[in-house]
Amino acid sequence: MADFRLGSMVAEVEGDGPAIVLIHGLGGSSNSFQPLMAALEGYRTIRPDLPGAGRSAARPGLPGIAGMARAVEEMLGALSIRHAYLVGHSMGTLVAQCLAVSRPGLVRGMALFGSITEPPPAARDGLRARAAKARADGMAGIAQAVSQGSVSATSRAANPVIAPFVRESLSRQEPRNYAAHCEALADWHGVDASRIACPTLLVAGADDPVAPPAMARTLETAIPDARAEVLPGIGHWIMLEAPAKSAELLTGHLKKTVG
Fold it and tell me: Which domains does the chain have, with CATH numbers?
């Protein structure tokens, strides 16, 4: 494994084979996908920290979800990757959808965990309020609330490490950059999902308060070649809460799509 840097953006790159790009969500980083990595032997995996998250500095010239998609696209170009399979979580599923529509020749397939659609008005207001709180008070309160509210009670009882992992991931975000990501989500108006031409797996947690199964079902209906799987007792951090099942679903879809 090696770090690849393109300007202010950092990605972990390892392995050989077809390219798999893993795009984290709000408050996450490349570490969000660590439980899946052992299952991806035989592929070339690229795990970027999106601009303003993890080890990557913000890129003011590339704002919003579309800007994040452009940053990922530029990194793949710098790595000479012409075709890739995208794995997204939460906000990362929007980045993946954006790329699938804007660069259909690049995207061979997708697996979207905790997939999000266009936020309803109440969610937009909540995201803007969270951005204001991050700027005013820092990340401690947000990290605690997210770690308790987005990991299911079943998962917290089964594995007490999951919620602290999520809390740590949120705690390490730079407040101004996290706020900007919240606002990017609040401003997002979606893509025409019917234009997504690649095979798409949608994995939802039955107990996910952020991206409930209804969102996955909406995308399943809109995307011509999509299949949704709902995991009982699982919240929003699906790869952490159900790593074995997540890996099973992902590798099964990869074998059918990429080979």
Answer: 2-120+189-257 (3.40.50.1820)
